[in-house]
Amino acid sequence: MRWSRLPFAALAAALTVQAAAAAGAQTVPVPQPRPDTSTPQTSAPDTSAPDTSAPSAGAPSTGAPNAGAAAADKPIETPLPQPATLQPPSADTVNPDRFGAKPPDAAYGAFQRGLYRTAYNLAMVRAKNGDPAAQTLVAEILSRGLGVPLNAAEAAKWYGLAAEQGVPEAQFQYALMLLDGRYAKKDDKEAYALMQAAAEAGNRLAQFNFAQLLVQQDPGDAGIAKAAVYYERAAATGLADAEYAMAQIFANGAGGKPRDDAKARLLLAQAARQNYDTAQLDLAAWMIEGRGGERDLKSGFAWMRRAAEGGNVAAQNRLAKLYMGGIGTDPDLILAGAWYIVARRAGLIDPQMDDFLQGLDDDQTKQALQKANRLP
Q1: What is the number of other CB atoms lying within 10 angstroms of the CB of residue 294?
Q2: What is the C-alpha separation between 299 and 293, in angstroms, rounded?
Q3: What is the Rg, in whole angstroms, of the alpha carbon atoms belonging to the chain?
Q4: pTM more than 0.70
């Protein structure tokens, strides 16, 4: 088990409160962040449609969207379950810089080749002699259970030793363990200090998580302003979570930042390109309504479909409305019904779509159910 993110709820709540107080401010749902498996992006963002199959044949709708179909969904009374924040990351690519300035060459080489037990044995010798890079590598292997039994408590010990010697990755991971309190004695003060140290050293996950701590500590505009410094640094490295956070800050004009829908839309596009599903949903909605840039119904539909196919329940419901209204695609009542059935099965209830579903005839309902059973 290995930690990578703190919950995003504090920033969401803070921005929601500010948006309610500020006339004209618009907010969008903020999800729990996800594990860092992406490669930083440095190229200019592309806000066009994602590389997916083309929408249904025929010219897309270019008129104003149907008001009922394009309008944002009403807030869900019972919030949908958020994805877990404690997920094991992919083990296929690991940046050697994370283990310290000079990683143990033989051990790290074995690790890269997938020889985890060999890497563990080689690194352990040096770890016991106080080598911080080896200590971090041992902790990494133990925290994931690679080639050895998973042992989070033992991993915490080695992360702690390496953190004392200033390895940013170890400081970051140990800080999360101190906050969690299951495998190391809970110590919020020490966790805060270690997270800040790792953030200042340039660890992008630490920058994002330290920003989270700052918002939790002070959910007001002053806290968001402090957090924005670190969100912005992490976003500059291409971290999708931070790009999305900054998009929300610019969209709401929070934390001392002026409201800038164009900049927010670019950040949403960057995060969406990295399969951040909530960014895909928001980007789709913005394209359809023409917020932050030109209206692009076809691309908006494509992004909504991509988010829906990725399992975003809100996007599944909105995609159903796009099919129902023929927005960015040809109208398709069967697919509209199918996608709403998928969303409803996941717990989302939309009275408008319930009425639509009840209005289908028996044959249409049967076809919608059959398609729903085949959808992701």
Answers
A1: 8
A2: 12
A3: 23
A4: yes
